[in-house]
Specification:
heterodimer, A: alpha+beta, Gyrase A, domain 2, RNA Polymerase Alpha Subunit, Chain A, domain 2, Alpha-Beta Plaits, four-stranded antiparallel sheet, 12 strands, 28% helix, B: alpha+beta, Dna-directed Rna Polymerase Ii 140kd Polypeptide, Chain: B, domain 3, Hypothetical Protein Ta0175, Chain: A, domain 2, 5 domains, six-stranded mixed beta barrel, five-stranded antiparallel sheet, 28 helices, 21% strand, globular, disordered N terminus
């Protein structure tokens, strides 16, 4: 994992490439607040582009704080940036971080109950471990081959050859897929292998035989060759590495304590109950209403409506912080959730680089700037 | 590479599995009516080999595990007989119709009509017309002509009787003291009328029975064939036997019935009884397939017998050694003439046309069978529940017959009828409705005689005075006449009758009594000018029946089957036990469940009681056009076209019927996460936005399977023979196998070869190209009939087309909310929830709800959300609350459905009302209002753009008018019609109009002679070779053709005029009629 990267750089793609003087990126330790330079105080003595000095600078230096991190799940805070940046990151994570998925299926024998396209579609949706996807080539860009699986840079070949010769129904699963490359295998197998490694005791998932592709009865056979290629979720959802990527605005909750004290205990309890999620609670000692989990608030306005219904408008004031986001990232397993974020930032940077380079080439930067205001 | 050949030839072998609703009767006629020597097509009389097979055997035979049968397979198509509405058999119905006046002078518009049906199901309708002079005429049809007999002659001809007896019988319904009581039907006029009837006979100087018989015989002898040598009396006997009250055998019964009908007719005339309505279900029954076939068979057998007799007579007259007494000789002779009875029945089932001279007393001759389409399971089963009013009514201007009548409550579904042309004529039976059968529960033919006898015995025990030992004559309101299957069996005192009816009903319920449970006890009580009173009992087959609870019985067995005739006079309360708004409700019966009034398909709509009623009707339509899981045996079927959904799901929100009818075996939709919001305007006007990523993952993916049957033997000429073969040409081997057939699994693009054939006369190989504009995948190739001939001649190629959702495809929820996909958007552009990160699969516009009021869909969304959070299915049976309320205890708890579902959502941290805060997928900002989002079961309808889009720039034109042709298949254009022209004119878009109607249509430059004004006289002058000096650098111009006017013999006046080509055509057409068209040319614009 390439962690040697400047965070300020990551979110500041407009800075000239030449001027990058990367401070070491602290390793991704949970619960670590990485302090980032404030606006205009670039520690690396950045030379801003001359254009930036004359106009209002939109450059900001976001902060990231990692809350929780597992292989397939990650939660982090993103502060001091705009919704546009947060949403761009979300969109890139879902649709533009490349992974590897089966794209071409050559069916030799298929006597199963499902037709060829159905099986090909099911194969395509099996997530494959794609740690190398960023380094791989798109097969359309690959010069050394035409994407037929012969080339190690752009494709991975799979084989499946299953025939049922017992009276019991045979499940053809992702475990039957034989990969030509050890690094690209169905995700569930990778997880299982990892689990087997870490604990030799029986692991729950070890019972399962993987993702079912099709079921065969006696005499039915499935023999095929599949080629996995690099792609992005924009083209087809099978290449999307993200199961869920979402962010919420951090809520800013102010309880009007004076007004709250006018409520009886039962009223307080009723008011707390009005929120479907557990945001507020009653302090058992003092009997005061306290905010226990502000992030559980879903902006459903239930408590505000309840307060109005109780005749106490302004009992609580809840605002969304405009520049503070809490991201939840769930990966399909194709790449680790943390890597997904980093890859997304990479891709976003590349995209913006492309825009900048294009500007430089075509020399219509001013027009773009005028357009942006 | 040939696959194992499955010669899965399903010829027209009848499937005999009996359903409760339709009864095939081949067993009946194979045993009693036709011997095998008659040569009836064996496929029809043979019983299905799958009868009584269990699911595993059915699967072994490559059938549906849940196969129910009940249809015929003709040429691989599943056909079934239409259930047609007929007049109720053996019940005299009083009618008022203007057409009756047209029978002749003196006829009134009133008559009593009775459709009499024999035990073999053939029937003759008899009409008793009222004449303005007080007399009556008995009318019936023989071979396309109606015969009318004075009723007195018939009365006298039936039995040995005298005038006094007829007079007394007729006037028994009138006594002076009756007039003070309620329900008297007779008036004192009846005596005078009886006198007129008797005078009529006397005026013809007919006094005895034999006089009358002779008179009838003389009258009918030329009309009926086969009685040329018989006496008049024999002819009259035959007429009385075969045309008058054919359901009765004894003349005494016929006499009594005729008296009864006369009394009813006079009651109608005197307005002491109201006319019956022929358009209500109360006076109707249904035509069953078995009955239809046996009627038709009888007709065909009689036809054959007649013909054979004639042939035999001719043969006997011709040759001396032919002896009629030698059965062998007769058999041999008859074998020479072809017997086409089996074939005619087969073709009747195939085409649905009854090829007979007489009407067979059926309402229509065409369209008696229909194809059972297996578009999806719901459509398939709906065919078996569909009841049609008759083709004649479809053309009628009046809408009376289409009305939903209260009499059909519980029998015909008020929701499930198509809108548009067949609305109200094509109804569907409710899920609880069934039809009485000719067979009992053990599958044996019922002994109707025995049943009638035991009923009669019970009636006598209950105080009915039987008719035969004639004691005294009386009528309503003192006694009520008792009719059992159209036979007058006696009379019962009005004071006793209610007790008797209740007793018979209790006997119906007990299994040990000999009273059948499907007996209809039509007790028409005395009333003031209401329906003609009486006790009408019916045991006959093909009556509608439905179960209700008899609340006077507290035992377990209290489900009584009632018919529409008796229902009109019964007190049945609703299932909620309320009084129905009446102060005192003397309920004797109770509905079992409110959903009993809905058909199977209508029952599947969740919470249909919360929807506006037309929406439920639309859903019934759309459920039947849904692309679903049409068949589990689709691999072994050869449907011409089959729609198949790749990834169907079971709905989270479902009704009790969904489980009852195992619709899970054939699911029809997907649980899509639906967000209700106006997002970007692409969801305006019932358009909807689909999530492209969901489609990528398999949402609503589907296929169309099509089977093409290729029979080379059909196409070839006599001299040559065609076989499937491939040429040695290498280019063809990529798509066609060595046997001339395509590879299985091969994709074939349009205009690529699909198969190739070899003609041994011309010895060339010809490949047939794929038609259509879509690529197909060869799914299966079946070779048929390899055993009979040494080469293969017939082949079925099943192809498969991928139909994934694209823009323009049609989808619908289960609440009549259909919409067209307008955009396929990637996941990232869809709004998302901050809490769950969920993106909707589908976006619909909130404007779909206010005017349509489909609250059921909103409830479904909330309920499905709650159900999916709790991991359980939600019951959405309509009217469920009205049944609960009877218990009383739940009333306070369950004030509304939302109050039940809301807490389920809230317990998982969701909004009580099912809405969520969503963020724009484009900007990442919170949307201004909370969005209603939840899973809704969506159906993909079979209407897809790929079958409908029509595009053309240039292309084929009509050779006569040179205008573009119409029709999608031919690559034609879309008509720019008068209305379109008007609207463009109104906008003043003249240039556009000129472009559409002229430049892009039949633009033509014509040569017109300005001297004679003729369009048609221009002729080309042969160009003389002129030496044109070539000027370098200037492009060579084509010298214009020179024209001359044939009439004026000069080219001076020739002008070119642009015009539509049809104008020239018009000129030519007019010229052909000797009309000259003269054009006046001018250079000025606007002249």
């Amino acid at each position: 994992m390439d962690q040697r990267r400047s965070v300020s750089d990551l979110f500041n793609p407009l800075r000239p490439e030449s001027n990058r003087n990367p401070p070491l990126y602290p390793s991704l330790i949970p619960k670590t607040l990485i302090s980032l330079p404030k606006r205009g105080q670039n520690p690396s003595g950045a030379q801003k582009p001359p254009a930036m000095e004359t106009t209002v600078s939109y450059q900001r230096f976001p902060k990231v704080r990692i809350r929780e991190m597992k292989d397939e799940y990650c939660k982090f805070e993103l502060r001091e940036t705009d919704a546009s940046m947060a949403n761009a990151l979300r969109r890139v994570m879902i649709a533009e971080v490349p992974t590897v998925a089966i794209d071409l299926v050559e069916i030799e024998v298929n006597s199963s109950v499902l037709n060829d396209e159905f099986i090909a579609h099911r194969l395509g949706l099996i997530p494959l471990t794609s740690d190398n996807a960023m380094r791989m080539r798109f097969s359309r860009d690959c010069d050394s081959c035409d994407g037929d699986g012969q080339c190690e840079f752009c494709s991975v070949e799979f084989h499946l050859n299953v025939c049922c010769d017992s009276d019991q129904t045979l499940d053809v699963t992702s475990a039957d897929l034989r990969s030509a490359e050890a690094s690209v295998i169905p995700v569930d197998l990778a997880v299982k292998a990892l689990a087997m490694e870490s604990s030799s005791t029986s692991y729950e998932a070890a019972e399962q035989r993987g993702i079912i592709i099709v079921k065969l009865r006696r005499g039915q056979e499935l023999r095929l060759r599949a080629i996995a290629r690099k792609g992005i979720g924009k083209d087809h959802a099978k290449w999307s590495p993200a199961a869920t990527v979402t962010f919420m605005y951090e809520p800013d909750i102010h309880i009007n304590e004076d007004l709250m004290e006018t409520l009886s205990l039962d009223e307080k309890r009723a008011w707390i109950e009005s929120s479907p999620t557990k945001v507020f609670d009653l302090d058992p000692n003092t009997g005061q209403v306290v905010v226990v989990d502000p992030e559980a608030y879903t902006y459903d306005d239930e408590v505000i409506k309840k307060a109005e219904a109780m005749g106490k408008p302004g009992l609580v004031e809840i605002n969304a912080k405009e520049d503070s986001f809490i991201f939840t990232v769930e990966s399909t397993g194709a790449i680790k959730a943390s890597q997904l974020v980093l890859n997304a930032i990479d891709v976003l940077r590349q995209k913006l680089d492309a825009v900048r380079l294009q500007d430089a080439e075509e020399n219509d930067f001013s027009e773009l700037k005028a357009h942006l205001g | 590479m040939l696959r194992p050949i499955e010669t899965f030839i399903r010829k027209s072998a009848e499937k005999q599995e009996q359903r409760t609703k339709e009864i095939s009767q081949s067993k009946y006629f194979s045993s009693t009516m036709m011997g095998p020597q008659l040569g009836i097509g064996s496929a029809l009389s043979k019983r299905c080999h799958l009868r009584g097979a269990d699911p595993s055997k059915l699967i072994y035979h490559k059938e549906e595990a849940t196969e129910m049968g009940g249809y015929f397979i003709c040429n691989g198509l599943e056909r079934l007989c239409r259930l047609l509405i007929l007049q109720k058999r053996n019940y005299p119905m009083s009618l008022v119709r203007k057409v009756f006046r047209a029978r002749g002078d003196g006829y009134s518009d009133k008559a009593v009509v009775m459709r009499c049906v024999r035990e073999d199901q053939s029937g003759v309708t008899v009409k008793l017309y009222y004449l303005q002079n007080g007399s009556a005429r008995l009318g019936f049809w023989i071979g396309g002509r109606e015969f009318l007999l004075p009723v007195g002659i018939v009365l006298k001809a039936l039995i040995d009787t005298n005038d006094h007896e007829i007079y007394v019988s007729l006037t028994c319904c009138y006594k002076e003291r009756y007039q003070r009581e309620k329900g008297a039907v007779g008036t004192q006029l009846i005596g005078e009328r009886a006198q007129i009837i008797l005078d009529e006979v006397r005026n013809l100087s007919l006094f005895t029975r034999s006089d009358c018989l002779k008179h009838i015989g003389e009258y009918f002898k030329p009309a009926i064939d086969g009685f040329e040598a018989e006496s008049y009396t024999a002819v009259a006997d035959a007429v009385l036997r075969d045309y008058i009250f054919v359901h009765l055998t004894s003349n005494h019964d016929k006499f009594n019935l005729l008296i009864f009908m006369l009394q009813k007719l006079y009651a109608l005339v005197d307005q002491t009884a109201a006319p019956d309505n022929g358009d209500v279900l109360q006076n109707q029954e249904v035509l069953l397939p078995g009955h239809l076939i046996s009627i038709y068979l009888k007709e065909k057998v009689v036809e054959w017998l007649r013909r054979s007799r004639r042939l035999l007579a001719e043969e006997m007259a011709k040759s001396k050694d032919f002896s009629i007494k030698d059965p062998e000789q007769v058999k041999k002779f008859l074998a020479r003439s072809s017997v086409s009875i089996g074939r005619s029945i087969e073709s009747m089932l195939k085409v649905g046309r009854l090829a007979t001279a007489s009407s067979l007393d059926l309402p229509q001759k065409e369209g008696v069978t229909i194809q059972a389409e297996r578009l999806n399971y719901l459509r398939f089963i709906s065919h078996f529940c569909a009841v049609h009013r008759g083709a004649a009514f479809a053309k009628m201007r009046t809408t009376v017959v289409r009305k939903l009548m209260p009499e059909s409550w519980g029998f015909l579904c008020p929701v499930h009828t198509p809108d548009g042309e067949p609305c109200g004529l094509l109804n569907h039976m409710t899920s609880t409705c069934c039809i009485t059968s000719y067979f009992n529960t053990e599958g044996k033919v019922k002994d109707f005689r025995d049943i009638q006898r035991s009923i009669q015995n019970v009636l006598i025990r209950l105080g009915m005075s039987p008719l035969l030992p004639k004691l005294e004559h009386a009528g309503p309101p003192e006694v009520l006449q008792v009719l059992l299957d159209g036979r007058l069996v006696g009379s019962i005192a009005c004071t006793e009758v209610e007790k008797a009816v209740a007793h018979i009903r209790s006997l119906k319920l007990s299994a040990s009594s000999r009273i059948p449970d499907d007996l209809e006890v039509g007790y028409v009580p005395l009333s003031l000018g209401g329906a003609y009173p009486g006790l009408y009992l019916f045991t006959s087959p093909s009556r509608f029946l439905r179960p209700v609870r008899n609340i006077s019985h507290t035992t377990d067995q209290n489900i009584e089957l009632i018919g529409p005739f008796e229902q009109a006079f019964m007190e049945i309360r609703c299932a909620d036990g309320s009084d129905g708004g009446r102060r005192s409700f003397p309920a004797t019966h109770e509905e079992i469940h409110p959903t009993g009034i809905l058909s199977v398909v209508a029952n599947l709509t969740p919470w249909s009681d919360h929807n506006q009623s037309p929406r439920n009707m639309y859903q019934c339509q759309m459920a039947k056009q849904t692309m679903g899981f049409s068949s589990q045996a689709i691999r072994f079927r050869t449907d011409v076209k089959a729609y198949h959904l790749q990834t169907p799901q079971s709905p989270i929100v479902r009704t009790a019927s969904y489980n009852k009818y195992c619709v899970d075996e054939f699911p029809t939709g997907t649980n899509a996460i639906v967000a209700v919001l106006a997002y970007s305007g692409y969801d305006m006007e019932d358009a909807m936005i689909l999530n492209k990523s969901s489609v990528d993952r398999g949402l609503c993916r589907g296929h169309i399977y099509q089977t093409e049957s290729i029979d080379l033997a059909e196409r070839q000429e006599k001299s040559s023979k065609k076989v499937f073969a491939r040429s040695n040409d290498k280019s063809m081997s990529s798509s066609i196998d060595s046997d001339g057939l395509p590879y299985i699994g091969q994709m074939v693009k349009p205009k690529e070869p699909l198969y190739s054939t070899y003609d041994d006369l011309t010895s060339d190989v010809k490949s047939t190209l794929l038609k259509g504009s879509e690529p197909v995948i060869v799914d299966n190739v079946t070779v048929i009939g390899t055993a009979s001939k040494n080469c293969m001649q017939k082949v079925n190629i099943r192809t498969r087309r991928i139909r994934n959702p694209i823009i323009g495809d049609k989808f619908s929820s289960r609440h009549g909310q259909k919409g067209v996909c307008s955009q396929l958007w990637p996941d990232i552009d869809m709004p998302f929830s901050a809490v769950t990160g969920m993106r909707p699969d589908l976006i619909i516009n909130p404007h779909a709800f206010p005017s349509r009021m489909t609250i059921g869909m909103l409830l479904e969304s909330i309920a499905a959300k709650a159900g999916s959070l709790h991991g359980k299915f939600i019951d959405a049976t309509p009217f469920a609350s009205s049944v609960d309320k009877k218990d009383g205890k739940e009333r306070s708890e369950r004030s509304s459905l939302v109050d039940e579902l809301g807490p389920m959502l809230a317990s998982h941290g969701f909004n009580y009302h099912g809405s969520e805060v969503l963020y724009s997928g484009f900007y990442g900002t919170e949307m201004t209002c909370e969005i209603f989002i939840g899973p809704v079961y969506y159906q993909r309808l079979r209407h897809m753009v790929s079958d409908k889009f029509q595009v053309r720039s240039t292309g084929t034109v009509d050779p006569i008018t040179r205008q573009p042709v119409g029709g999608r298949k031919r690559g034609g254009g879309i008509r720019f019609g008068e209305m379109e022209r008007d609207s463009v004119l109104a906008h003043g878009a003249a240039y556009l109009l000129h472009d559409r109607l002229h430049s892009c249509s039949d633009y033509h430059i014509a040569e017109v002679c300005s001297f004679c004004g003729s369009l048609l006289t221009a002729t080309v002058i042969q160009q003389q070779k002129r030496i044109v000096q070539e000027i370098p650098g200037v492009p060579q111009t084509r010298t214009p053709k020179n024209f001359t006017c044939h009439a004026c013999k000069t080219k001076k006046g020739m002008e070119t005029v642009a015009m539509p080509y049809v104008f020239r055509y018009l000129a030519a057409e007019l010229a052909a009629m000797n009309i000259r068209m003269e054009l006046k040319l001018s250079n000025r614009a606007g002249c």
